[in-house]
Write a structure and sequence with these properties.
Elements (H helix, E strand, L loop, with lengths): L1 H15 L4 E2 L3 E7 L2 E12 L4 E12 L2 E2 L2 E2 L2 E3 L8 E8 L5 E6 H20 L8 H8 L20
Helix pairs in contact: 1-2, 2-3
């Protein structure tokens, strides 16, 4: 998780300075029986990390009415009631693929790392923000999800 926090910190700094680039998310939708099939793509390049990445999701989506509005609900339609998404990572130095991985694990890690960075940068006193405790607590899990360990303990993995 530390590597994820460090990589996101670098990428966000590159993005805020105009070095990293991304394009608007693209959602392509067509009817599919009672639902909608959606192909979502997002991509970006982080020169400071020497990578470019593409995220692709293949989803079945429903739009049930909830109250006075419609809500987008993804259906885990793949084998084993799973969602389907991939991230492809490429080297900006050699233009070769570095990784192809499911997006679900990376998504949870990105959310956790972004939350840690946001807490750190919005805190009045960043050293007391819990940022370092979040980094320690995140080591207890391999998927970035909540471990149940208290972030106030010195060794959250014990």
């Amino acid at each position: 998780m530390d590597q994820c926090i460090d990589a996101l910190s670098s990428a966000y700094l590159d993005f805020s300075s105009g070095v990293a680039v991304t394009r608007q998310r693209s959602d392509t939708l067509v009817p599919s029986g009672e639902s909608v099939y959606g192909l979502k793509t997002m991509d970006g390049i982080a020169p400071g990390l020497d990578v470019g990445a593409v995220r692709i999701n293949s989803d079945i989506v429903t739009w049930p009415k909830v109250g006075d509005s419609y809500r987008r609900v993804k259906v885990p339609a793949a084998l084993g009631s799973r969602y389907t998404g991939l991230i492809l990572v490429f080297s900006t130095e050699m233009a070769e693929p570095l990784a192809i991985m499911p997006d679900g694990v990376i998504q949870r890690m990105r959310v956790g790392a972004t939350s840690a960075l946001g807490t750190h940068h919005l805190a009045k006193n960043p050293e007391d923000s819990g940022y370092h405790r979040v980094r320690l607590a995140s080591r207890c899990t391999t998927d970035g999800s909540a471990s149940g360990a208290s972030a106030d303990r010195y060794d959250p993995c014990s």
